[in-house]
Design brief:
With 449 residues, the protein is of the alpha/beta class. Helix content is 35%, strand content 17%.
Length: 449
């Protein structure tokens, strides 16, 4: 039976009537109705093609034939829960283990990054028998209540900070407390965590975990300074806590040079828990927590079974295996290195011609362009960023979004099949774009998590 096709106006009217208004659309004043996609391209109901610079979830490209084939084949054969013995879950866990340090050898499969981060929080608190958590300022770790509590990006707009949550400065060397001219910003920022731990201890409390994205995304496409994570881990371990690396946004080769973004911090650093999600299933709901045998053993010892109805089911794991195959066969990590460097280089060239571009940063296909109204004061150009996003969509059919505490950073986390010509299309084609223009009102059209 063919599904009835609605006109865009009808779809929009039904969405406003039936879907919660807190579930926002891109380009809310004039939404794009996408009806199909392939690779790094989206197509609307009129067949118009848009370049997708947003969809980090569709990691190896929209509707990749190898992924859809694997999903359909397994769905036609069997899909059940993980209480039945099946090859796919153990084969997938074994493949993931091969990408991680040896000590991260136990896996729990779930359905979303939020579920993964919630479970990581439980694992840390069960293992340490402590409650308190240190997070980075402006962090976002998911939409569950437990994760809103450890996400300053969210809790500051809601009930506020809980007494067991402690916020460390974001290690942003562009506009943070220690900037690029600091001789050792990694240690300087890590020492703020040490100070925070001492403050927590003075209150008679204990740390269960330091919880952070390996590359803070909502915080503004931040690249952590070298040495930061290893030094923080040293301080956290000394306090009896564990280090949780949130790789939901950045894992699976997006940084190019490494499979996981935490590996950018050097071979001497290894988290105690790693969470992963968005890109795992290329759009299929699939996520995971990887941890040590010791931490997993403490979780088992509590005597309560952990069961997830859909986590690790045969179809999800077949898709996950297919994603890993495509990353390898199509050299998508190598592509991220080459195309990401080209995108950064072209963006830096734009920066040399436009004072409103204050900073260009990134690694692989994780790139941010920070817009400022004044380079000396680094004042966020929020309105201009919204204007650029709007113009790119309306005049050049390029989908880009913004991030950062002031929504002034153009972020690029496209599908990993993004090509050189796409980087050039984004940075070279919009020659008539007036980077100095400011809109009369702040637009929030470009935001995604």
């Amino acid at each position: 039976m063919e599904v009835e096709k609605l006109r865009k106006e009808e779809t929009l009217a039904m969405r406003k009537r039936l879907i919660g208004q807190s579930c926002r659309l891109f380009y809310s004043s004039d939404p794009v109705k996408i009806v199909r996609a392939r690779g790094q391209y989206l197509f609307d109901e009129n067949g118009m093609q848009y370049l997708d610079c947003i969809s980090n979830v569709h990691h190896v490209g929209h509707c990749h034939p190898s992924i859809t084939k694997a999903a359909a084949a397994q769905m036609d054969l069997l899909n059940t829960n993980t209480r039945f013995l099946h090859d796919n879950i153990v084969m997938y866990a074994d493949r993931l283990a091969a990408t991680l340090p040896d000590k991260l050898c136990v896996f729990y499969f779930v359905n979303s990054g939020s579920e993964a981060n919630d479970l990581a929080l439980r694992l840390a608190q069960q293992y340490t028998q402590h409650e308190d958590v240190i997070v980075l300022d402006h962090a976002y770790h998911g939409h569950l209540m437990s994760l809103i509590d450890i996400s300053p990006y969210k809790f500051r707009k809601l009930a506020g900070q809980k007494e067991w949550v402690h916020v460390a400065p974001l290690p942003d060397i562009y506009r943070g407390i220690y900037k690029e001219n600091n001789p050792d910003p990694g240690k300087a920022y890590a020492d703020t965590v040490k100070d925070l731990i001492e403050e927590v201890h003075r209150k008679g409390r204990k740390i269960s975990a330091f919880f952070a994205e390996s590359l803070p995304s909502v915080g503004g496409q931040i690249i952590l300074p070298q040495g930061y994570s290893a030094k923080v881990a040293e301080y956290v371990h000394a306090a009896g806590g564990v280090f949780v690396a949130d790789e939901v946004q950045t894992g699976f080769g997006r940084v190019g040079s490494h499979f996981w973004a935490f590996q950018l911090q050097g071979e001497d650093f290894c988290p105690d828990i790693v969470t992963m999600g968005k890109p795992m299933g290329n759009g299929h709901p699939l996520a995971c927590v990887a941890t040590t045998a010791e931490i997993a053993g403490a979780f088992t010892a509590n005597g309560v079974e952990y069961f997830n109805t859909f986590g690790g089911n045969p179809v999800s794991c077949a898709i996950g295996l297919a994603v890993l195959d495509v990353i390898e066969k199509e050299d998508l990590r190598g592509n991220a290195v080459r195309v990401g460097a080209h995108l950064k280089g072209l963006s830096t060239e734009l920066q040399s011609r436009h004072d409103i571009i204050g900073d260009v940063r990134g690694v692989g296909l994780f790139v941010g362009i920070e817009l400022v109204t004044n380079r000396e004061e680094r004042t966020p150009a929020t309105k201009t960023a919204a204007y650029v996003v709007k113009r790119l969509k309306e005049e050049y059919r390029i989908c880009v979004s913004t991030d950062g505490p002031w929504d002034n950073i153009l972020k690029f986390k496209p599908p990993m099949c993004f090509r050189m010509k796409d980087a050039e299309h984004v940075t070279l084609k919009p020659k008539t774009l007036n980077w100095k223009r400011k809109t009369s009102k702040t637009l929030s059209d470009g935001h995604i998590h």
